[in-house]
Design brief:
This protein is mainly alpha-helical. The protein contains 18 helices and no strands.
Length: 396
Amino acid sequence: MSVNAVADPTDDSVPRPFRTGGVLAISVAHFIHDMYTSFLSPLLPLFIEKLSLSLTQAGFLTTIMQLPSLINPYIGIVADRISVRWMVILAPSLTAVAMSLIGLSGSYGMLLLLLFVTGIGVAVFHVPSPVMVSRLSGDKKGKGMSFFMTGGELARTLGPIVAVAAVASVGLENLYVLMVFGLLISTWLFFQLKETPANIPRQGNRTVAGAWKTSRHVLIPLTGILTARGFMHASMVVFLPTYIMGETGNLWLAGSALTLFEACGVAGVLLAGPLSDRLGRRTLLMISLIGAPISIMVFALSGGILRIIALIAAGFTVLSTTPVMLALVQENAGDTPAAANGLFMMISFMARSAIVILVGWVADTIGLQTTYALSAFLGLFGLPFVFKLPKVENRI
């Protein structure tokens, strides 16, 4: 069943309902799309061994996949001017094909190229999708962003298990068989979104500079938060399987640890948006930015059941901030919502990419355990930026 057309989606002067069907359609596509990008982290130990990579080189793999995010604001300008439905429809196929071929990489350069193409698919999908979700969410943008991000976090929860199971079943070189699911989801999206508005004619300065001028009061403090969170995110998301496998030598256990972390992130993401609609965006960000460093510090310095509890808490807090930040961006984007989202994603890339390489270098130097503790300490520096964010009235 296709998603019903949304009447007068540009009119923000009257209350608009939460369009569950449309939001869920894009969220399901987010789930399938991001499952492919989640393959890299659990398979990283295999590529380190196969291609004799250092941890610094391994960290750069994530950076190269995020490099196309530099053009996100320009993708957003296009999204604000014309219909970008085809971007959302075709991006899962592009990502699926490129990511499914990484097992065939015989060199570091080939692996970098495939991950760069994957990054293009990621950029094309992620810039317009949150804007469409925002339009379909009416006055409950936090809830809509939580649904959308839950698709992504659930993908990163199941993706490591799918990747490890696929390698165990068909081998690293035969991962290409998985691309069929991305091709199918693009076909399904075509029918689901054909009646959903994807372009909104607006007046205003539709340039990157104009989008920055309109939303800089929220993007500047978010930059500080993203930078501080980046150390915690890189340590836990990128290097967790490598850390666990280094301690245990068990790839399944390494993938399971990342799955547990991401599963708790799903719960955090699902709850954070609706709670921020009620309690306020700043309150939810404050809770996350206090809980995450404490949890990671305990994880790094403890063992046994306490370490498992800390891992659960870290997943819940580290990953729960994104829907809240996406809602803040859309609420302060003015006439250029996609361009503002593109700026936010570009800043997020710049904050994460350099940090991933830095974390890899630090881990090569002092070890991953000490790196976790250091990342937790640096995460606390995001707290002052929360008070620079605009206050948002409770909506419900």
